[in-house]
Design goal:
Chain A is mainly α. Chain A has eleven helices and no strands. The chains are: A mainly alpha (about 280), B mainly alpha (about 280). Chains A and B meet through α1, α3, α4, α5 and α6 of A and α1, α2, α4, α5 and α6 of B.
Chain lengths: ~280, ~280
C-alpha cells in the first residue's frame, strides 16, 4: 500500500521543489553577497547581517510585528475558545447557522475586501470623534483579532464535539462547580484544539500584509508593511538577511515538532505491538 | 433549560458582539459607501460606473482562473504521490510544502522578480551560454506564474489531506475488476477527491483574483487587476465610494464563481475540508 517512489515521481517532486524553493534560495544567496547588487555575486560576506543589527527601523518593525502577533493571537484564542464553548451549547439551529455563517465570512472573503471594509469603519469612527490619526496599533489589533477568531473557533469546535457531554456532568455530580468542571474536565480535553488555534493565529498575524496595509497608520509599522514600502523602490539585502534568519528559525521549529511527533508515533506503535503480542 | 447551560451560552456573547461590530457592520459600510456619493447622498453612479471596469474585472477573473487550473494540474499528481509514500517521506514533504508559506509573500514575489527580470538570473544565464534573452517580466504570464507560485501550497494541502484518507482498497478493487489506470483515475480517485479539489480551488482562486501585490511587481504598469484598482481608490485616489462599489462587485462575482464551482463538485454540507 505505502510504497517507495518511482524514479518518475521522484523527478516530478524534485521539479516542483525547485520551483517552490528557487526564489528562497536566491534570497538566501544574495543575503550573503558582498555587494548590494541583485544580479552580480561579489563574494561571501556577512555585512548585511551586521547592518541588519544596526537598522533601527527594521528592528522596531520586527518588535512591532511580534507584539501585534502575540497580543492579537492571545486575545483571539481566549475569546474564540469561550465562543466555541458557547456555540457548542446552542440548541437553536437558526442561531447556530447564523453565527457560523458570520464566522466564515472573514475566511471566505478576499482579504482586500475585509481590509477595506474595516478601514471604512475605522475612518468613519475617527471622523465622528474628530481624530485624524486614529489608525495605528489599536485598529490593527482589532483587525488581526477579527481575522484570527474564525481559525480559533474552527479548531476548538471539533474537539468540543468529540468530548463526551456526560463528562462535565459527571464532574459536577461529584461536587465540582461548573467553573471547576470547565477547567478540570473540558479544558484539558480541548487543549490541543486551543493550541493549534493559537499557533495558526500567531503565524497568520505575523505574516499578514493585506489587511494590515488597509488598517495601519504611520505610527505603527510592522515588518510586512516595511517590506512593502521598501519594494516600491529597492529592497536592501539586509531584508534578505532577516528573511533568511526567519526561514532558518521556522525550519528548525518545524523539524523539531516533527521529530517529536515521529517519536510519539513510534512509542504508540511499540505499545500497540506489545499489546498485540499478549 | 437550566442555569448552567445559560452561563455556557453567555460565553459566546463577547464574540457575537465583536463579530457584529467588526465583521457585519464593516460589510454594511461597504454597501452604504457604494450607494452614496462623497457628500453621503444616495446615488447609483458608482455602481453604474463599474461598466468602465468590466475588462479589468474579466481579466482578473480569467487570470485567477488560469492560475488556479495550473495549480490544480501541478498539485494533483504531487498530492497523490505524497499520499502513497511512506510515513517519514510524507512528513518531510509536508514540511517542504508548508515552509515557503511561512516566508513573507512580498519578499518571495520580489525574489521572483529578480529571477525573471530582463537583467535577472535566468537571462544572465541564457546570455552567458550564448542564447537569446527572453522577456518575461511585466507580462500576464509572469503574473500567473507568481499566483501559482505563491498559492500552490493551498492547493496541495487539501488535496493531500483528502487523498491520504482515501481507502486504497477501493482502487485495488477497481483494478481487480479489470479497470485500467485511466478508468481508475476517472471513476474512483477523481470523484473521491472532489471535496479536496473544491476547497483547493477556493483557496487559490480567491486570493489570486483579488491580489494587487503580485500584479504590481510582476506585471509592472502594463496592466492592472481589480485588486490594483481597488487599492488605488483607497490609498491614492481617495475615492472610497468607487472603491467600495468595486469591492462589492468583486465579492458578488466571487460568490457566483464559488456557486458555479460547487455545482460542478456536488455540494456537500461541510462545504469542503479546511486544509
Amino acid at each position: 500500500m505505502k510504497t517507495k517512489m518511482t524514479p518518475l515521481s521522484k523527478l516530478y517532486v524534485a521539479l516542483i521543489m525547485i520551483f517552490l524553493y528557487a526564489p528562497i534560495v536566491v534570497m538566501i544567496v544574495f543575503s550573503f553577497n558582498s555587494t548590494a547588487s541583485t544580479s552580480v555575486i561579489g563574494g561571501f560576506s556577512l555585512r548585511w547581517y551586521k547592518s541588519l543589527l544596526h537598522d533601527e527601523g527594521t528592528m522596531q518593525a520586527l518588535a512591532n510585528t511580534l507584539i501585534l502577533a502575540v497580543s492579537s493571537s492571545l486575545f483571539a484564542t481566549v475569546m474564540g475558545t469561550a465562543a466555541a464553548v458557547g456555540i457548542n451549547t446552542f440548541r437553536n439551529k437558526r442561531v447556530k447557522q447564523l453565527t457560523m455563517g458570520v464566522t466564515n465570512i472573514p475566511m471566505m472573503n478576499p482579504e482586500i475586501v475585509t481590509g477595506i471594509s474595516m478601514m471604512l469603519l475605522f475612518v468613519f469612527c475617527a471622523n465622528l470623534i474628530g481624530k485624524s490619526d486614529a489608525l495605528g496599533f489599536g485598529t490593527m489589533l482589532i483587525a488581526h483579532i477579527t481575522f484570527n477568531l474564525p481559525y480559533v473557533i474552527l479548531s476548538v469546535l471539533p474537539k468540543l464535539r468529540q468530548l463526551d457531554k456526560y463528562l462535565p456532568e459527571a464532574a459536577m455530580d461529584l461536587g465540582c462547580t461548573p467553573v471547576q468542571a470547565f477547567f478540570k474536565v473540558i479544558l484539558p480535553s480541548i487543549s490541543t484544539g486551543i493550541f493549534s488555534g493559537l499557533m495558526m493565529s500567531f503565524t497568520l498575524s505575523l505574516d499578514d500584509f493585506v489587511i494590515s496595509y488597509f488598517t495601519q497608520g504611520p505610527s505603527f509599522e510592522t515588518l510586512p508593511i516595511r517590506i512593502f514600502s521598501m519594494t516600491k523602490k529597492r529592497v536592501t539585502p539586509d531584508m534578505y538577511a532577516l528573511s533568511t534568519l526567519i526561514f532558518i528559525a521556522i525550519l528548525v521549529l518545524l523539524v523539531l515538532i516533527n521529530v517529536a511527533q515521529a517519536k510519539g508515533d513510534k512509542k504508540m506503535n511499540n505499545k500497540l505491538n506489545k499489546g498485540g503480542k499478549k | 433549560m437550566n442555569k448552567k447551560s445559560l452561563t455556557a451560552k453567555l460565553t459566546a456573547s463577547p464574540y457575537m458582539v465583536w463579530s457584529a461590530i467588526f465583521i457585519v457592520v464593516p460589510l454594511i459600510f461597504v454597501l452604504v459607501y457604494s450607494l452614496t456619493d462623497s457628500q453621503g447622498n444616495f446615488t447609483l453612479d458608482y455602481v453604474l460606473d463599474i461598466g468602465k471596469y468590466k475588462d479589468v474585472m474579466l481579466n482578473s477573473i480569467w487570470l485567477g482562473f488560469i492560475a488556479t487550473v495550473i495549480s490544480l494540474v501541478i498539485a494533483y499528481p504531487l498530492a497523490y504521490i505524497m499520499a502513497r509514500t511512506t510515513a517519514n517521506v510524507q512528513r518531510t514533504m509536508m514540511i517542504l510544502v508548508m515552509l515557503p508559506m511561512w516566508m513573507n509573500l512580498l519578499i518571495r514575489t520580489y525574489s521572483m522578480m529578480i529571477i525573471m527580470q530582463d537583467t535577472g538570473i535566468i537571462n544572465t544565464v541564457l546570455s552567458n551560454i550564448g542564447l537569446p534573452k527572453i522577456h518575461m517580466i511585466n507580462t500576464e504570464a509572469a503574473v500567473v506564474l507568481g499566483m501559482v507560485y505563491n498559492y500552490i501550497p493551498y492547493m496541495i494541502l487539501p488535496l493531500y489531506s483528502i487523498m491520504s484518507k482515501m481507502d486504497h482498497n477501493l482502487i485495488e478493487a477497481a483494478e481487480d475488476l479489470g479497470a485500467n489506470k485511466f478508468t481508475v483515475l476517472k471513476n474512483v480517485i477523481l470523484p473521491l477527491s472532489l471535496p479536496g479539489i473544491a476547497s483547493g480551488f477556493t483557496m487559490v482562486f480567491v486570493p489570486s483574483v483579488s491580489t494587487f501585490y503580485i500584479s504590481k511587481k510582476l506585471g509592472g504598469n502594463t496592466f492592472s487587476l481589480i485588486g490594483d484598482v481597488i487599492e488605488m481608490q483607497f490609498k491614492s485616489a481617495n475615492n472610497y465610494n468607487l472603491g467600495a462599489a468595486l469591492s462589492l462587485v468583486l465579492m458578488v462575482l466571487i460568490i457566483i464563481c464559488m456557486m458555479v464551482m460547487n455545482r460542478f463538485t456536488g455540494d456537500d454540507d461541510d462545504g469542503g475540508v479546511l486544509i
